[in-house]
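User: Please fill in residues for this 259-position structure.
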């Protein structure tokens, strides 16, 4: 039976038959794949703990006629701070869902794997440095900036510097967001598209920063809540445009922002 090994990250899981689980996994070698993990719901399963979301695991995959299955696992990176924080877990559920919507299956892409691992690592390091005063808003900004990088890696880079229509540099004035075109529109081109909505100059500056330097978002602590919500809404809207479906975890994550 043909097999292959790869480092991998579990994006989502669901119940299969009896003691099995069906997993959507992003692998370093094969990209996003759907695999079956047989018997992992049994008490004492050796693989069960390694196939939880929010970790990096080395897997052995056995080829099957209908579906490939996981034949062995070895934990590579566990991210204990992240897994012990319920707010961070809610965020990573959202992040993983975004990845699943943006990325197509069975297309090897090392850059995407690196972005996923770096996202987990960055939030883990943030929690280590801020163990007593961790803020979910700061973590969301980190994750959203990586989502923008993920979009760029797929040729879907949002534009926050120039107008989508006239291609001129945006001025410090009332500009608009085009969800359909994943970018911004200047006041002179506003009439060219319906359903545009305004974006503040401050939110636009934050989006530019996030789009250029992922780790720079960590410096955006205590961002005004109004600006934060504006930025979050825009990035989430872009995910909906790309994935063409609602983000089910968006409401769950919002619960922690309302506390």
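Assistant: Residues filled in for all 259 positions:
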């Amino acid at each position: 039976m043909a097999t292959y090994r790869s480092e991998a990250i579990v994006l989502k899981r669901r119940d299969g038959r009896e003691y099995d689980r069906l997993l959507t996994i992003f692998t370093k070698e094969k990209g996003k794949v759907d695999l079956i993990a047989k018997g992992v719901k049994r008490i004492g399963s050796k693989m069960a703990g390694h196939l939880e979301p929010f970790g990096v695991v080395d897997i052995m995959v056995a080829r099957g006629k209908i579906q490939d299955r996981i034949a062995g696992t070895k934990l590579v990176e566990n991210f204990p701070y992240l897994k012990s924080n319920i707010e961070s877990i809610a965020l990573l559920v959202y992040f993983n869902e975004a990845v699943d919507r943006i990325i197509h299956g069975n297309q090897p892409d090392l850059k995407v794997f690196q972005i996923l691992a770096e996202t987990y690592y960055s939030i883990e390091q943030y929690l280590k440095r801020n163990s007593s005063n961790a803020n979910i808003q700061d973590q969301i900004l980190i994750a959203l900036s990586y989502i923008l990088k993920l979009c760029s890696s797929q040729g879907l880079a949002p534009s926050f510097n120039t107008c989508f229509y006239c291609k001129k540099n945006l001025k410090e004035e009332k500009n608009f967001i085009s969800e359909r075109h994943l970018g911004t529109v200047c006041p002179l081109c506003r009439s060219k598209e319906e359903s545009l909505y305004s974006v503040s100059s401050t939110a636009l500056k934050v989006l530019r920063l996030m789009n250029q330097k992922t780790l720079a978002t960590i410096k955006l602590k205590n961002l005004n809540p109004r600006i934060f919500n504006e930025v979050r809404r825009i990035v989430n809207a872009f995910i909906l445009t790309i994935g063409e479906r609602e983000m089910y975890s968006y409401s769950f994550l919002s619960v922690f922002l309302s506390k």
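For context: The radius of gyration is 20 Å.
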